UniProtKB/TrEMBL annotation:
The lineage of its organism: Bacteria, Pseudomonadati, Pseudomonadota, Alphaproteobacteria, Rhodobacterales. Self-interacts. Interacts with FtsZ. It is a peripheral membrane protein. This is Cell division protein FtsA. GO terms for cellular component: cell division site; cytoplasmic side of plasma membrane. Cell division protein that is involved in the assembly of the Z ring. May serve as a membrane anchor for the Z ring. It comes from Tropicibacter naphthalenivorans. Residues 24-223 form the SHS2 domain. Its main location: membrane. GO terms for biological process: FtsZ-dependent cytokinesis.
Length: 442
């Protein structure tokens, strides 16, 4: 716990240093593409301004952008270090070339690594008359952290609600008068190996890692409008190899999970069903894909060219209805898995139950209608917020996590490691646990 706490603190300090220098790169490591954006900061300290989805509109500008086909990444996790390293280098060099500046620090996000959410609570007596930074640090460290298992790391640990005596729903209790301070914290843990692989890969590219985020969280920041973040909404980020699910309320993420299926699986089904190469299947999916068949689709024929060079042999046609018959079951399977995750999180108990679909795979025609039928809520397709300097090509749903990461870089929400946790909290806790173990086992 302490090593992670310190490494996250070190990353936060590195991010501050990078922002003082004026440039930082954003790296979205996905299963189908790797996107890199270079941000220039104009010297205003974002920590002095409020936190919010629109706060990122000031303070930075995108001066370089590049994408490359992802290699060596499956289900949002790195499978081949050398191939991923090559792809990251390609994207970063192209973005640097466009920006005309060298970048040393990157903030990365990824979608896999089996995220798990925990809700923690803690309370302490306020030492002085008013709540100060030290009291907030004490209440955060008083949250009883569960045993989340060996080989997992904490990626996010954000206070989502403070209560002072009988008043709940405080965003920032500092400077207020009271006696007892309580806090609810959302903690997200991920598989440690996946994080270490990504950190190692970034290091091999001669870059410094200045921050890590879950792409489900980043997509939610970019695709949900302020009211949705406030009243409660779910963001479903449908990528190539994984589909991220995140739930927001009161502008804080309270749940995140991921489904190990995405748009690439639909492409593979088409490739196997129609006996065509993957590249052809991707083209057919993009141009003719859909999930609702009509009477017209039986008559609309699609040419499936092959790559053997024998034109007569390759010239086959399939109806669009057949194509939809292959795509729809897989899309339904992904949505069923998403529904299971939302039900497990208790999404139906939120005051507002909006669902926003984003990510490149959300562009399949008719997906929003199918999603609202299966998930039973108001569903809309989300595009990321517009940020200064973003090229037109990078404004689609597939760039939601990259744009969200820009906002996260410029206006990070308070995390547990932003506060100087009293050193005496750690030994006391471990000693208490040791004593308890001793009592139970002897």
């Amino acid at each position: 716990m302490i090593e992670l706490y310190e490494s996250q603190r070190a990353m936060r300090n590195m991010r501050k240093a990078a922002m003082q220098r004026g440039v930082v790169a954003i790296l979205d490591v996905g299963s189908s593409k790797i996107a890199c954006l270079v941000l220039r900061f104009d010297g205003t300290d974002p920590s002095e301004e409020g936190i919010g989805s629109l706060a990122g509109q000031s303070g930075f500008r995108v001066i370089g952008a590049a994408t490359t086909r992802s290699r060596g990444v499956r289900f949002g996790e790195i499978h081949s270090m050398s191939e991923t390293e090559r792809a990251i280098r390609t994207a970063v060099q192209a973005a640097q070339k466009m920006a005309g500046i060298r970048v040393d620090h990157v903030i990365a996000c990824f979608s896999g690594a089996g995220p798990r959410s925990y809700g923690l609570a803690g309370n302490v007596e306020v030492q002085g008359v008013t709540v100060d930074e030290q009291d907030v640090a004490r209440v955060l460290s008083a949250c009883d952290v569960p045993d989340y298992g060996h080989g997992r790391e904490v990626l996010h640990a954000q206070p989502v609600n403070f209560a002072l005596d009988h008043r709940s729903g405080l965003i920032d209790p500092r400077g207020q008068i009271g006696n007892e301070l309580s806090c609810d914290m959302h903690m997200l843990t991920v598989d440690a190996q996946s994080i270490q692989n990504l950190a190692h890969c970034v290091k091999r590219c001669d870059l410094e890692l200045a921050g890590l985020a879950s792409s489900a969280y980043a997509s939610g920041i970019a695709a949900l409008v302020e009211d949705e973040q406030e009243l409660g909404a779910a963001c479903i980020d449908m990528g190539g190899g994984a589909t991220g699910v995140s739930i927001f309320i009161k502008k804080h993420m309270i749940f995140a999970d991921s489904v190990r299926m995405g748009g690439d699986h639909v492409t593979q089904d088409i490739s196997m069903g129609l006996q065509v190469p993957t590249a052809t299947a991707e083209r057919i999916k993009t141009f003719y894909g859909g999930v609702h068949a009509t009477g017209m689709d039986d008559r609309e024929m699609i040419e499936t060219g092959g790559e053997t060079g024998d034109w007569e042999h390759d010239r086959r046609t399939v109806s669009r209805a057949e194509l939809i018959g292959i795509m729809r079951p897989r899309v339904e399977e992904i949505l069923e898995e998403v529904k299971a995750r939302l039900d497990a999180a208790g999404f139906e108990h939120l005051p507002s139950q909006k669902i926003v679909l984003t990510g490149a795979a959300s562009q399949i025609p008719g997906l929003d209608g199918l999603a609202s039928k299966m998930l039973g809520q108001q569903v809309r397709l989300g595009r990321p917020l517009r940020v200064h300097g973003l090229p037109q090509a990078a404004t689609g749903p597939g760039f939601a996590s990259a744009v969200g990461l820009c906002l996260f870089a410029a206006h990070p929400q308070d995390e547990w490691w932003d506060f100087e946790v009293p050193v005496d909290r750690y030994p006391a806790r471990s000693l208490k646990r040791a004593v308890q173990w001793f009592r139970e086992n002897w």
